[in-house]
């Protein structure tokens, strides 16, 4: 949703990234700028990514990204090139060495060394604690506000329904829910809880509150933190790939996203809090990074922390720390070294246990949906599970297409100009349609929880409305549950669920992408869970009425508890979520952590795998990649294989028709000539060659370094004038007697720029870019500098060729 | 253990890798050669790794490794360079394109395309099935042989103790164990099961069988598959990093390792089957790869399959598929793309469920040690858990040092010449010392299982020998267990356990590294589990007698089940295994999968983390890295950061005193000159430069390609004689009228060799090597070719500098 307000990102194609010198801001040296208060400001993307060297833009080489993502080395250069003028020396490494050397000298320094070493772990601890606490707060507040739509606690308005009735004397759960302390709005206003009037009043109040929450949410987002909308995962993926969006992880975004997330969830819109929690955790991590020198100054290390924070987000969202780590590894992160694996795991655990000690669900459980199934599954059931997988895949593919189409309409038509109206209309529509149906009226997480639940004997839920065929003469607790014909209540529930399914499928398409925080996990899972439960009950009844048929004989005899509809709901939820996000292992592990039983991994995996294959057959992009492309972020998909047969020479610049590359020679240019060259272009860096004739590559120098060095020299160094020679060589030739002393600038030249030859196949070049995290690379031919290739050139080339290239078979994954 | 027989590997230093042209075999084109029957043959390592260009060796550029590990592209060049003479085109990619294009044409081709796409999954399925089946077979056979040491089933000798007594009529478990069908050797031979004679006969038979098994194992290993010894994990790590050890994963190794593993485990030696199962799974994978063209011909793809197989191995070893995948990711694999993640997971699951359907443990459980704890843990208990972590770390560090020292002694003294004697002596020693103590007499896995077990009321184990203080007046099942004073039985058990701890600690050091298959997981875990159980019982008694003290008050009141000694055993096992292998996340996840409860993750993690930190403080290498270094395998540790401040120019060759690099010029050399150059050196590749003067780099050509091309040309092409010019340029100059026609060889030149500049800091160069999986890289200066740097140069440089460099603080991890 963020791209909307930025004219440069509106057209949604990579091409739009080109000629925007105005909103391309070379990354600031001071990282604190990212923390700048962007409330109400214009949304300029702080783009450190390179513009094509020959366009009107400028290219900028983030050496830090390259060296940093490779080994944590060198980002000192990025942060402040002047402090560390010699390329090839890395500040961070040096700092370690220094500390390590010092530590032998004194105990104080040893303690310093230990504290430095521990700072990473401390940071992880803090991220875990903060994210866990925030997630707990969000859960509690959202519960309270959601209940507020239905009624009020007379003991104290700050109690939610459940808390309000805790002190009640009623014994059964059902009666407890109707405790006298809690009154619906109809009771408060009209004094009665029955009848058409009461229903109408409740309906109206439900709508009023929903609209109020939605209005508040969208207004806050628009006024204070435009980045707070959406799920945030596409942007975080982009950020982790090396792009910088200034303020995206700042404190205003954090505050506003936390508040509006509560409001958006409470408003009853078809959205979840799980995706945005990832964004919240990343904001926490980014802000906490500023407490530690080691992370404040090092872009690459901070990205590792963000990877861990993504794991934390999923960990607190589902109470699944291992699943969270795998989610970060599989879905979010670009570069995930082992060190990050271990730290992510630690942070995810801390966060999960912080959340549990806050205990927002009131059940002392770690996980969002606690499920315990007793019956094993049978091999025959793989059939329906795979069917659910196909459904999930189809829905995922359809949803992505529909949602992207809708977002395009929003961008291209006047609809995009009225985000507040849009949110209000969708909220009103959702509220009006959702209220009459009890399954849509309840929150998404609550619905899923109920659908996952296996019916026990005491369960009063409509979904467990089985005919108690022989409840008195039945064997015991275990068998009394089994083998039940559906009763009237269950049939009614099924109809409501079917309607809820259609409704959820429709409304989620237009909800995701609005200017409120909105996650996709819960709505997707809800769709799948409904479909799964429907199928599960269907299978159950089929088994009951045909338990002598060939399929069911042997394992589904009367009296045996053979089909678990809750498991079907779970499998369906996994399938739909898999279809939308294309998560695989992490999804299965998250689900596994919910049940805690390895038994159910196989059904989950069969469904997830089928879902991914089916969805991939209709388009290889998951919803996050689709949104990344929609917003035109420069993101080089690490999963997809590059399918072109072109060579680097075809993609690099200058093209044949372009003017030649602007280069500096290592000697022979005067200060004036250099300044003229710099002035006449917008590139943020220049290759240095031996001479204009030979074009043999010496190194690469940053525009900024060049300008500052010349400036400093003119101010401080004696005799440096416009006619002074600029010398990049080690040993300058003896100057003529009458010439002014030369300006030696070898110190600012990066003597080890990355090069590939013009004959390198593009697939190899793309892989080098991905693996080394490059932003640009020089191209040589027979040792001579020929051109430059940037990440954006590659993205553009990929986008152009997208249509004509033969698609890899989806099964190939 | 494998390095022992190879003279080149005996000295155990990287230096020894240099001058061995005799056993450096340039990788064969035909992969089937790896399947060659190596039974009884000499152990030559098929080393595709480069030798230094200026030594007597040869350097060899495995383009396939580079391109392959990068994107699966290009290994066609490796497999058969002549078939695909144009670098930059990748066969695999082309094959896809071809298939994708064809698939539009006919349905048959579409089916082919689908089957091609599915072949990866099919392969995974087969690997899972085969490994699971083998693991099941190994389990069953080992059970049977282990029981054979104690007695015989009269109903049929092929039954193990448990199966033999299944049909027995006895009702309690204890009596069942003493069913009449099963007779100890004393009963069979002397007719009595009591008395000193019977004990002596049993003791003797135990020893005889143990020696017989050990003898058989070591003889088989020596005679048929020397690679079958050890755990195999160090070698697999090395293979996955790009090194090839011919026959290491062949069918003979598989067969012999499977058989001898059973024998070694049954012989009662202090070793486990878990590590070797990884090797077995990798052998299965390697053999099954030969069924699929896609994998037979592609080294890089096969390595991905091997990564997945490592996951399968751990999955079947512990019944922990998720843990297995993380083990492969964390500990074994060098390059682990997401695709592999998903496939590993699939294969691991298939294997785990295959194993379960074989049901070797007879309990229908997936996991090796099924544990179910009921009592939660208290925050105070973190203290003892961390203590266990410290113990584990100390033991891990100590074990590694002692074991490596012992292995060095074995290598350097005459001991190494008598492997059979060594195995027999150690077996005899183990048997003699182990028999009197019931905890050492039982197998390692059985012991751990018993130590992990929580005492239930009906438990007759000695470890549960509590005084039944109020068994009749006690509340119920739940509380009857709690708060127990130790009885005489328990005290006796503790003494035995303490002795067993000392014994296990000692004997494992000399056992690991002998010439039998031997894993470390179980012995390490056993040591930790004993220590943990001892501490746990100690804590329990402390709590019982001091339940009013400040520490225990509130959570450990009389009647509450507050301390679970089994949990302590589990934490201790994790700590010791962590100390030895330095696994972290995967270890915690494996343990988590055993219990299935997220509750116990925190104790496990606290202990594992402490253990790793403590162990790292004494030496950063885990046991596998230590053995890799001991054997001198060329392995570039991906975890450790490179700490030198040197530049590439300092490490590359030629050094200043060396003769200049042997290069070809792109034109001007005659066939004779080229042949002379090739003959005079042993390098497996030559850079091509523009001219001897300019030294601008054009490309790189393989020795093999060069020789074959010239040979072919001489045979087939008219007029190619010794005086013909060899031309590597695109457009050759018009030859003089009288000159013979030139030989054009541009087709065999790799026009996109990797280059770095001489000023590149070594830490960046090392990272490029790691990330791109390079074996060598050309070094340029100002566009001119300066030298070459190989992986081996880097390893040597790292080894030389190892002493003087400042060590990174262990907490830094």
TrEMBL record, chains A, B:
Residues 89-98 have a biased composition (Basic and acidic residues). It is a multi-pass membrane protein. Residues 652-716, 748-807 form the CBS domain. One of its GO terms (cellular component) is Golgi apparatus. The chain crosses the membrane at residues 121-145, 203-228, 249-271, 277-293, 305-328, 385-404, 416-435, 493-513, 520-539, 567-592. CDD domains: CBS_pair_voltage-gated_CLC_euk_bac, ClC_3_like. Residues 1-31, 65-98 are annotated as: Disordered. Belongs to the chloride channel (TC 2.A.49) family. It comes from Gasterosteus aculeatus aculeatus. PANTHER family: CHLORIDE CHANNEL PROTEIN, H(+)_CL(-) EXCHANGE TRANSPORTER 5. Keywords: CBS domain, Chloride, Endosome, Ion transport, Membrane, Transmembrane, Transmembrane helix, Transport. It is found in: Endosome membrane; Membrane. This is Chloride channel protein. Its main location: membrane. One of its GO terms (molecular function) is voltage-gated chloride channel activity. Gene3D superfamilies: 3.90.1280.20, Clc chloride channel. The keyword Transmembrane applies. Pfam families: CBS, Voltage_CLC.
């Amino acid at each position: 949703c963020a791209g909307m307000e930025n004219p440069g990102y509106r057209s949604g194609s990579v091409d739009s990234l080109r000629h925007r010198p105005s909103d391309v801001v070379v990354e600031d040296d001071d990282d604190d700028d990212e923390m700048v208060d962007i409330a109400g400001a214009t949304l300029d993307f702080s783009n450190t990514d390179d513009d094509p060297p020959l366009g009107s833009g400028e290219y900028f080489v983030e050496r830090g990204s390259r060296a940093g993502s490779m080994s944590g080395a060198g980002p000192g250069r990025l942060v402040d090139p002047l402090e560390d003028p010699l390329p090839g020396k890395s500040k961070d490494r040096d700092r370690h060495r220094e500390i390590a050397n010092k530590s032998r000298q004194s105990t104080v320094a040893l303690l310093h060394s230990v504290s430095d070493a521990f700072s990473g772990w401390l940071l992880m601890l803090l991220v875990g604690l903060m994210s866990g606490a925030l997630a707990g707060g969000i859960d509690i507040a959202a519960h309270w506000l959601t209940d507020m739509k239905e009624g009020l606690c007379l003991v104290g308005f700050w109690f939610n329904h459940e808390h309000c009735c805790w002190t009640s004397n009623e014994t059964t759960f059902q009666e407890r829910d109707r405790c006298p302390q809690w009154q619906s709005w109809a009771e408060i206003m009209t004094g009665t809880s029955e009848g058409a009037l009461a229903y109408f009043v409740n309906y109206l109040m439900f709508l009023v509150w929903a609209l109020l929450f939605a209005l508040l949410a969208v207004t806050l987002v628009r006024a204070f933190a435009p980045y707070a909308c959406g799920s945030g995962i596409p942007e975080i993926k982009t950020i982790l790939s090396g792009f910088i969006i200034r303020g995206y992880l700042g404190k205003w975004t954090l505050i506003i996203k936390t508040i509006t997330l509560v409001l958006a969830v409470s408003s009853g819109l078809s959205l979840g809090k799980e995706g945005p929690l990832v964004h919240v955790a990343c904001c926490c991590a980014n802000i906490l990074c500023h407490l530690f020198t080691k992370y404040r100054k090092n872009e690459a290390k901070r990205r590792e922390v963000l990877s861990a924070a993504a794991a934390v987000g999923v960990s607190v969202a589902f109470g699944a720390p291992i699943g969270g780590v795998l989610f970060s590894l599989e879905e979010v992160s670009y570069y995930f070294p082992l060190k990050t694996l271990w730290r992510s795991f630690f942070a995810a655990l801390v966060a999960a246990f912080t959340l549990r000690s806050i205990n927002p669900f009131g059940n002392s459980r770690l996980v969002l949906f606690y499920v315990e199934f007793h019956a094993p599954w049978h091999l025959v059931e793989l059939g329906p599970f795979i069917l659910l997988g196909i459904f999930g895949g189809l829905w995922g593919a359809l949803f992505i297409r529909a949602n992207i189409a809708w977002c395009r309409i929003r961008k291209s038509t006047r609809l995009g100009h009225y985000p507040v109206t849009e949110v209000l209309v969708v909220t009103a529509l959702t509220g009006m349609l959702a209220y009459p149906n009890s399954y849509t009226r309840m929150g998404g997480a609550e619905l899923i929880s109920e659908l996952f639940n296996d019916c026990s004997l005491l369960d009063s839920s409509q979904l467990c409305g089985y005919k108690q065929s022989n409840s008195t003469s039945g064997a015991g607790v275990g068998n009394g549950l089994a083998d039940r014909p559906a009763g009237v209540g269950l049939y009614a529930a099924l109809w409501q669920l079917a309607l809820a399914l259609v409704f959820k499928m429709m409304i989620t398409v237009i909800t995701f992408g609005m200017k409120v925080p909105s996650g996709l996990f819960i709505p997707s899972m809800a769709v799948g869970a409904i479909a799964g439960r429907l199928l599960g009950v269907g299978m159950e009844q089929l088994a009951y009425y045909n338990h002598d048929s060939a399929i069911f004989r042997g394992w589904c005899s009367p009296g045996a508890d053979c089909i678990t509809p809750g498991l079907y709901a779970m499998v369906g939820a996994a399938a739909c979520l898999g279809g939308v996000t294309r998560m695989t292992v992490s999804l299965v592990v998250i689900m596994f952590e919910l049940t805690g039983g390895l038994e159910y991994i196989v059904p989950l995996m069969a469904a997830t795998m089928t879902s991914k294959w089916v969805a991939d057959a209709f388009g290889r992009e998951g919803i996050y990649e689709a949104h990344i492309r929609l917003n035109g972020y420069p993101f080089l998909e690490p999963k997809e294989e590059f399918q072109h047969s072109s060579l680097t020479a075809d993609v690099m610049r200058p093209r044949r028709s372009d003017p030649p590359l602007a280069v500096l020679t290592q000697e022979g240019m005067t200060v004036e000539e250099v300044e003229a060259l710099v002035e006449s272009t917008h590139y943020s860096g220049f290759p240095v060659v031996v001479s204009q004739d030979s074009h043999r590559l010496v190194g690469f120098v940053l525009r900024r370094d060049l300008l500052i060095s010349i400036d400093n020299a003119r101010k401080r160094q004696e005799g440096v004038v416009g006619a002074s020679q600029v010398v990049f060589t080690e040993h300058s030739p003896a100057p003529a007697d009458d010439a002014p002393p030369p300006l030696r600038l070898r110190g600012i030249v990066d003597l080890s720029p990355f090069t590939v030859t013009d004959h390198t196949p593009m697939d190899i070049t793309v892989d080098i870019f991905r693996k080394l995290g490059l932003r640009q690379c020089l191209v040589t031919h027979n040792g001579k500098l020929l051109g430059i290739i940037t990440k954006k050139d590659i993205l553009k080339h990929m986008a152009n060729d997208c249509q004509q290239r033969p698609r890899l078979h989806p099964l190939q994954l």
